[in-house]
Task: structure prediction
Amino acid sequence: MAVWGGSNHQKRAARANAAKEKTTVSDGQPCPLGKCHLRVTVARADTGEGVAAVEVQAKGPKKDSKSTAATTGLADFGVVDPGAYTISLKLGDANKKKYDPPKPVTITINKGDTKAQRIEIVPLVKFRVMLVDADGKGVSSASWNLDAPVKKGKTGSNGLIEADVPWDSDDNRELKVKYPGKEPSDAPAAKPLKKKTPAPYPAPVDVTEFTDDAPGKIIPETDISWKITLADLPDGDSDDGVLARLGNLGYDTADDTKTKRAVQAYQMVYLKANPGSGKPADILGDLKTRHDGNS
Result:
């Protein structure tokens, strides 16, 4: 199961451009008193909403740091000396789990200017793949390696593979999985045929001359590589959302007949209903919770 966690952010993304214009409207405006002012706004890259409790560090003619305010994400440095400044962000423990830290920004403030600098930070979303066996149970102890972001690990008892990825990252990535398997074993040797006393006619045949060659070792195939393309899922409260999530779980929903069978199979495996109704609406709540988790 693969889940792209950006679907909720997509609905609010239109706010970002408006918020950006509002924040930078005073950039470069002259101060009649000839003093320099610096204001830095830290905002989410997906929605444009301000991010609170981020330490903004300004290094230039003088060094200073300010914490962003709630709701607006504004760090107001007030009056500063003119010159070149490097603006960097220091995320706290809570924000480190939510955002991908941006690179420092270099700006120049001329005498008498007010500089309104906007820095966008990219939210992290969850990339999840769940390995399940034929009975719908998680596959544990499977080694995995993800190329973007570079991360590797082993699945627990629930078969979950999980990584934090930037909201605006490239949608294409490769996941390599090595399923746990037994060491190659020697196949059982073929039993020799018992020699029988040949009948007088036809001519005697020595059956030991027709034994099969001993079979080779049985080597299970456990290495799998997937090319994965991520996209926003339809909302989970609709038939389209149900079909998309069933597809992520490996069910075939190519047409109405296959969709009904897929829903019935889901109802049998996860809801212990046999026979199931086959109606997408009847698994909507359970499927959304099981598939999306806490994302």
Summary: The two ends are 13 Å apart (CA to CA). Helices lie at 7-10, 15-24, 93-96, 239-248, 256-270, 284-292. The chain has six helices and 15 strands.
